[in-house]
């Protein structure tokens, strides 16, 4: 009888915990690493994550620890579920503890500030494991819905199709349907840029601009994402799939989306600091909008919606002024 697949999930936030549930429901033995010992103890004693998924009963195959060495021991898959801008420092500490041959799986949707590296590039830069041992899980995956075992689909991407299929099997459940893809660049960019567009749509909703504005921002936001992806060698078809359009629609439509909610508060007139104060969890687009814009500039790609979000979030430009400037840009053909 074959031994069960072992998975370490490094990060006990809502998405890390929810994906740990998926892995456990698929038959894996899951160890969830929590930064705070009291949260790990609460997970083990109450079978819930009271801080991030209160009221959700966790599977018996999932247990928690605050000891990274214990979590990482003998893991077939090491799932990274920390805020994207903290990945480098965390992974530098964990790399000496990694199990031989473990596949590093990124749940993070961001671009690193300064380096403009995608998360899989940061993983390779720090852990030096090579692209065939780095995978990405992305798509329309709102953590609260998955924790409630509501139906969802996702993409598991790795340049090595065999590794992607292994991960697909490890997280396939009756409610979570993963598809494989070898276009890691496109899958990661779809996940990172959708957070920025989610902020833009949230701002528009907060301003009461209506559904035409929302539909336009989603569509033109997807065009921006595709332009950047093609400049970086991605397959444009990826952006019409779950990692692109699917994730973008979920983020821009749901009140469960942190980025959409953050943007809505800005659009209603709250300052950046006020919005941060009422936002408990990380809205990745707040920092990634700067790194995505920087990445686009480095490759000569025009991303006006992304630049507008940067102006509002980080330059303090009033949303009404930013909207007027965005709408008054020179007219041009759609397919450009």
**What is the terminal-to-terminal distance?**
56 Å
CATH superfamily of the largest domain: NAD(P)-binding Rossmann-like Domain
Structural class: alpha/beta
Mean pLDDT, to the nearest integer, reads 96
Secondary-structure arrangement, i.e. CATH architecture of the largest domain: 3-Layer(aba) Sandwich
CATH class of the largest domain: Alpha Beta
The low-confidence parts are: none
- Beta-strand share of residues: 5-15%
Overview of the molecule:
It is a single chain. The chain has 15 helices and eight strands. 49% of the residues lie in helices and 12% in strands. Helix 8 (184-206) crosses helix 13 and helix 8 (184-206) crosses helix 14 (304-314). The chain folds into two domains: 6-182, NAD(P)-binding Rossmann-like Domain (Rossmann fold), CATH 3.40.50; 190-327, N-(1-d-carboxylethyl)-l-norvaline Dehydrogenase, domain 2. The protein is an alpha/beta fold. The N and C termini lie far apart (56 Å). The chain has an eight-stranded mixed beta sheet, with helices on both faces. The mean pLDDT is 96. NAD(+) binds at residues 11-16, 143, 258. It is found in: Cytoplasm. Pathway: Membrane lipid metabolism; glycerophospholipid metabolism. This is Glycerol-3-phosphate dehydrogenase [NAD(P)+]. Residues 183-322 form the Glycerol-3-phosphate dehydrogenase NAD-dependent C-terminal domain.
């Amino acid at each position: 009888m074959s031994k069960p697949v072992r998975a370490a999930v490094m990060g006990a936030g809502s998405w890390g915990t929810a994906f740990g549930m998926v892995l456990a429901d698929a038959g894996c033995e899951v160890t969830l690493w929590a930064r705070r010992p009291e949260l790990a103890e609460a997970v083990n004693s109450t079978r819930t994550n009271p801080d991030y998924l209160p009221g959700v009963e966790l599977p018996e195959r999932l247990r928690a620890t605050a000891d990274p060495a214990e979590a990482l021991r003998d893991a077939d898959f090491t799932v990274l579920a920390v805020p994207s801008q903290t990945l480098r420092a965390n992974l530098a500490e964990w790399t000496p503890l990694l199990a031989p041959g473990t596949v590093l799986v990124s749940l993070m949707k961001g671009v690193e500030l300064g380096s403009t590296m995608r998360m899989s590039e940061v993983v390779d830069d720090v852990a030096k494991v090579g692209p065939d041992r780095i995978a990405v899980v992305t798509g329309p995956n709102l953590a609260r819905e998955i924790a409630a075992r509501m139906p969802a689909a996702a993409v598991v991407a790795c340049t090595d199709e065999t590794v992607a299929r292994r991960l697909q099997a490890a997280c396939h459940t009756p409610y979570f349907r993963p598809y494989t893809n070898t276009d890691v660049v496109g899958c990661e960019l779809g996940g990172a840029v959708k957070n920025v567009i989610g902020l833009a749509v949230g701002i528009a909703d907060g301003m009461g601009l209506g559904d035409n504005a929302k539909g336009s921002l989603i569509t033109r936001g997807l065009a921006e994402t595709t332009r950047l992806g093609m400049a970086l060698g991605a397959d444009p078809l990826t952006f019409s799939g779950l990692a692109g359009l699917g994730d973008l629609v979920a983020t821009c439509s749901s009140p469960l989306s942190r980025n959409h909610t953050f943007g809505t508060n800005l659009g209603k007139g709250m300052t950046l600091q006020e919005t941060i104060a009422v936002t408990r969890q990380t809205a990745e687009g707040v920092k990634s909008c700067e790194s995505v814009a920087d990445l686009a500039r480095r490759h000569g790609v025009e991303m006006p919606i992304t630049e507008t979000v940067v102006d509002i979030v980080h330059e303090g430009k009033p949303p009404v002024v930013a909207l007027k400037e965005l709408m008054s840009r020179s007219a041009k053909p759609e397919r450009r």
